[in-house]
Design goal:
Low-confidence stretches: none
CATH topology of the largest domain: Heat Shock Protein 90
Radius of gyration: 43 Å
Helix content: 40-55%
Strand content: 15-25%
CATH architecture of the largest domain: 2-Layer Sandwich
Oligomer: single chain
CATH superfamily of the largest domain: Histidine kinase-like ATPase, C-terminal domain
């Protein structure tokens, strides 16, 4: 025992050393490298972050606008003109497409610029208005799709719209975008407390509010207004500017990152790096110690489970030997039983030829012969069952009728169940199709489930066995008992190996695991649940396999 303890202690020490070199040493080395980081490196990283951020935000904004364009295009392609000229229909469409609140209102305008339907909060401001002179309206009729700049329009409120025409360009479907939601797409693009992000048009006009609250572009900002397809970057003494085209080159997204924000963080980090390394090292050592102890205990527990499993295998070998011995005994008994049957039959044939007057108690002799035959048949049935149950599990498939297999299995345990006043009720559906399956292994599952039910009930109860053909063409067997059931916390692990709810020495924890393994190999499934009226219920589902069908 002392030797084993020393062995597991040495494992713990080796794990601690390994964790030290795999965690502490890399942390210290990394901290040393970070301490020597220079300003240029931080600027490069900040520039890369700005480019990555602006690319991501531009994709998000473009996707947002494309989603609205595609949604409107699908609508005009799905419904005819008369549908959209009805305000009730437009209101239904508006409610269906605006579950996220991205759209403020929806308008339908014919080719002459006359409004035919409107849904939204500005009904009074736009009532009776014409749009034939509006720039966005003319551009929509020309290109079929248009995203406008921010303008005030009839409602005297800054907004921008997304508009599409029907395939025949008979009318325009226009949606006003919720500016607050659209502007929020830029909030996550702010890099640091002094960073900024905004969108401008070709004229240099702000299309979204500046995150820092400015209302006009600075001279540095104006230098960046270049609608080149490639992203542009400008590094000054204080800031990094990055640009990216969006909305098919219609707008320009500008992102500004303050260099001092980035450098200040790294300078403060450098001052605290030693303290952080010490804290992380202490935490890592504590975690390494804990993990090492847990792993060492897991190794010890695994060794114990392996030893227990080895003992179980030895027990299985013993049981297999007993089975072979029982089969041999059954074969040996069958021979004298056959001889007794023949002799009793021969005596039975001779007795009728005797004179009753000369042979005293002739009737008793004849009754005795019949009794001999009866008990020989009974002994033969028992040895036949013993042979069938103890034969080697060779995984050979045979044509099996499940109801007959249940009847045979119940005959093994019916008498023992009767001793405990336990009734086995069978509700077997007639005319079930036979299936090609390994009968002895399936019988082992049935026997195990019935025995478990008897153990669970203990005294005075009922075991119900039912069978049926399901609608999906599979066979279903249900084994239910009136016992106390299975605790809810144990249901998920009831089929795990070595898990048992029986008292020590009364269960190995392998029975249900073997049942699960057998049913799985037979191509079926097994599940368990507690019945509402008490007791456990095991359900087995098996495929119907005809002769010559591959499983």
């Amino acid at each position: 025992m002392e030797r084993k303890k020393h062995y597991y202690d040495s494992i713990t020490k080796r794990l601690l050393v390994a964790f030290f070199f795999l965690s502490i040493v890399p942390i210290v080395s990394f901290a040393w490298v970070m301490k020597d980081a220079v300003e240029d490196t931080n600027i490069i990283k900040l520039n890369e972050l700005a480019i990555s951020t602006i690319e991501h935000r531009s994709e998000v904004i473009s996707q947002f606008l494309n989603d609205k364009i595609n949604m409107l295009s699908r609508l005009v392609s799905l419904y005819p003109k008369d549908f959209f000229f009805d305000s009730k229909n437009v209101e239904k469409v508006f409610l269906a497409m605006n579950n996220q609140g991205n759209i403020v209102d929806l308008q339908v305008i014919d080719v002459t610029g006359t409004q035919h339907a409107y849904v939204g909060p500005y009904r009074a401001q736009v009532a009776g208005k014409r749009y034939d002179d509006a720039q966005w309206f003319r551009e929509t009729l020309i290109s079929g799709v248009h995203v406008s700049d921010v303008f005030t329009g009839y409602r005297n409120t800054p907004h921008f719209v997304v508009a599409v025409t029907d395939p025949l360009k008979n009318y325009v479907l226009r949606a006003t975008i919720n500016s607050s939601i659209f502007n929020s797409l830029l909030h996550s693009a702010q890099l640091g407390p002094h960073g900024d992000a905004f969108i401008v048009n070709h004229a240099g006009e702000l299309q979204t509010p500046s995150l820092l609250g400015k209302t006009a572009l600075s001279e540095t900002d104006k230098k960046l207004i270049s609608f080149d397809s490639r992203p542009a970057s400008l590094i000054t003494n204080t800031d990094i500017y990055t640009t990216r085209l969006i909305d098919r080159g219609h707008w320009l997204l500008i992102l500004k990152a303050n260099i001092a924000d980035s450098l200040g963080y790294y300078l403060r980090l450098r001052d605290k790096i030693i303290l952080i390394v010490i804290v992380i090292s202490l935490f890592s050592m504590a975690a390494a110690t804990f993990i090492s102890l847990v792993l060492s205990r897991n190794f010890e527990r695994a060794d114990k489970e392996y030893a227990a499993l080895s003992l179980q295998f030895v027990q299985v070998e013993k049981m297999a030997t007993v089975g072979r011995l029982a089969a041999g005994i059954a074969h040996e008994i069958n021979n004298p039983l056959q001889m007794i049957t023949n002799q009793a039959g021969w005596i039975g044939e001779l007795l009728p030829d005797e004179d009753p007057a000369l042979v005293k108690n002739l009737g008793e002799y004849q009754k005795a012969v019949e009794q001999i035959k009866h008990h020989v048949r009974r002994a033969g049935t028992i040895t036949h069952r013993l042979l069938g149950f103890s034969r080697k599990m060779s995984n050979q498939q045979e044509k099996v009728q499940l109801n007959e297999l249940v009847e045979e299995t119940v005959s093994f345990v019916e008498r023992e169940a009767g001793y405990h006043n336990i009734v086995i009720e069978k509700n077997l559906a007639p005319n079930l199709p036979a299936t090609m399956i390994d009968g002895p292994q399936l019988q082992q599952v049935f026997l195990n489930l019935i025995n478990n039910g008897v153990d669970a009930i203990g005294q005075d109860g009922r075991i119900e066995i039912s069978s049926k053909l399901r609608n999906d063409g599979k066979l279903e067997m249900v084994f239910a008992d009136s016992g106390p059931g299975i605790p809810a916390e144990n249901l998920k692990q009831i089929f795990d190996p070595f898990f048992t709810t029986k008292d020590p020495g009364k269960g190995t924890g392998l029975g249900l695991y073997i049942c699960y393994d057998i049913i799985k190999k037979l191509g079926g499934s097994i599940s368990v649940e507690n019945r509402k009226n008490g007791g456990a219920m095991f359900t087995i589902v098996l495929p119907v396999i005809s002769f010559g069908t591959q499983k």
